[in-house]
Structure formats: structure tokens, C-alpha cells
Amino acid sequence: MIIKPELLHKGDVIGIVSPSHVASVEEYEEIMSRIENMGFHAKAGKNLYKDTYGYIAAENERADDFNEMVNDPAVKMVFFGGGEGSIDLLPLIDYAAVRKQPKIYVSYSDGTSILNSIYNRTGLMTYYGQTPGLLKDLRHYDYMQFAAHFLDGNVTSFTRNSKWHILNPGVCRGRLTGGYLLNYALLLNSPFFNYGNAEKYILFLEDYEQFNDIGTVSMLISHIEQSDFADHISGLLFGHYSESIHPELMERLKRFGVKHDVPVVYCDDFGHGNNHAILPIGCDAALDTGKCEMLFLG
Q1: Do residues 206 and 272 share a domain?
Q2: How many Å apart are CA 83 and CA 21, to the nearest integer?
Q3: Active site: which residues (predicted)?
Q4: Is 272 a catalytic residue?
């Protein structure tokens, strides 16, 4: 059974934590000011600015911040960014409390690990696509995505803001799952990843050319293909990789679609680019490449 969190209301508290990087005081004070200007209250984790290991806070410090937000009934959204290190927290998250007090969990990039683990362990829908840092220069498309999913509700379809490149046509249905390619691949075969044997899944993935070249992207896709989970993938939506089209990436994604006989689409609507669409992990969805649309069915 999928659990959906309640919507945000003006005056609600948004918890800010940093599982994946050391937060900058100047940057995060500006972020929290923006949250207040949007009509919400910001609560910062006590260890937000710690760098115990030199590059990041200790696991228990980051987990304490996260679990404090989980257990605080006043916090309605837990908002966190990327970096490297969120996988450290997976054994330390209070999943029972997450399930008992459902709230909105939002991140992207390295946050992939936590968002998927929460959904897999609790059945709570989580949200991939945005981070607190976006609030410093909040673009219209990104704000409309935020408002649609967290303030207005009843989002029934994916709103495009880029050209869709159809690499293998088709129609499919399945639960949404995915995120940043490296983190998602690392989750496979771990105790924090599971899937229903009778379920089909629409996989969404993204990567960025400054982080991984095409060869690395291909290797990680192959890792997913070699997992048992691959048989449950009904379609693939790949997000922003570069400002220019990479024919090698397009060909690699097309090969994935042909090999597994599933529709594959590339777009610039989500990922490390200019557009930051929100994708609800755990949502039942339908993808139709002929109509260039993806519907959220519940």
C-alpha cells in the first residue's frame, strides 16, 4: 500500500538537513530566508554546519539531524541536497517513525539513496527533483513544480519543459522509481532496495557530463541490466546530461530500449540542468511516447 504525505500549508515547518555535504552558513542562511519569504518556517538541523570528518559530518551527527526532523510533528517537509555520503545514513534512519508520521521528503542527486530507501522500507511516496539550493534562484518552472506537488496537489501528469527525444517508442505502465544513476545502481542488491515480483516499474535516471563520461554511464546502465530487477522495468525516462546532445548516450539508451523491448525517452526536464521537474517515487504512472506524455495515476 502506497502512503502519500499531506500537502504543505503556509506557516508549516520545513526541516533542512545535509546528509551529503557540509553546508555553508552564508548559503543556507539565504536558503532559510527564502523559505520564510515563501510563507513557511525553516528549521535547521543542529549539525548542519559540522565537518567532523573534514569533508562531512559523522554518520551519527547527520542521522541525528535527519531523525530529529522525522520525529518532530511540527516538521511537514524534510528538504535536503546532494553531494556524497547519504548512503552512510541508510542503516541509521528511523523508518518506523517515518511510516508512523508520514511527511514530504524531497531531494535529488545523492539524495537518491535516502528517497528510495524510505519508499522501499515504508511504502511512503517520496519526491525526486529539487534541493534547497534551488531556492536561491527559483525559476518559474521549478516553482510551479513545487507548488503543484506540495501545495495544490492532485497532479495528474508530468509537465514538460523541454523537447522529448524518443529513442525507442512504446506505451508502458508501472511504479516510478529512480534518481541519480550512480546512487540508484549502488542500491541494487542492497537491503535497502526491494521490489514487488508482480510489479512493473517505470525507471527514471539522470547523470551529468561533469560527473561521469559516457563510458561510465554505460557501465552503470549495464549494472542495472544485469540485476534481477531489470526484468521488471517497463520503460525508461532519462533526464538532463548535457547542454548538447551526445549521440553516444542516445545510442546507448536506444540499445537499452531495444534489448529489453521497453520505451525509452531522453529529456532535459529533470536532473542537473536548468529544469527541475518533480518525480514522485512510488507513484503508479503511464508513459506514452507517441503522445510525449507521462500520466500520474495514483
Answers
A1: yes
A2: 5
A3: 109, 206, 272
A4: yes
- Residues 51-93 pLDDT 10s: 999 999 999 999 999 999 999 999 999 999 999 999 999 999 9
Catalytic option among 109, 113, 218, 234: 109
Domain boundary pick from 91, 122, 152:
152
In a domain, 229, yes or no: yes
> Which of 130, 152, 174 delimits the end of a domain?
152
Give the count of domains, the chain: 2
The active-site residue, picked from 21, 232, 240, 272, is 272
Only one residue has cell 530529529, namely 68
According to the 3-state scheme, what is the secondary structure of 136-165?
HHCCHHHHHHHHHHHHHCCCCECCCCCCCE
For the stretch 113-126, pLDDT in tens is 999 999 999 999 99
Report the C-alpha gap between 149 and 215 in whole angstroms. Answer: 35
What residues contact 259, with CB distance under 8 A and at least 6 apart?
A: 225
**In terms of domains, do 131 and 185 share one?**
no
The one catalytic residue in 21, 68, 206, 240 is: 206
pTM above 0.90, yes or no: yes
The strand order across the sheet containing 13-17 reads 41-44, 13-17, 75-80, 104-107, 126-128, 279-281
Respond yes or no: is residue 232 known to be catalytic: no
Could you tell me how far CA 224 lies from the centroid of its own chain?
A: 17
Q: Is 31 inside a domain boundary?
A: yes
Examine the residue annotation and report whether 225 is marked as an active-site residue of this protein: no
Beta-bridged to residue 201, according to DSSP, are: 175, 233
Say what the alpha-carbon torsion angle 226, 230, 236, 240 is, to the nearest 10 degrees: -40
Cell (9 digits) for 222 = 549495464
Q: For residue 177, what is the domain's CATH number?
A: 3.50.30.60
Mean pLDDT (whole number) for 47-51: 96
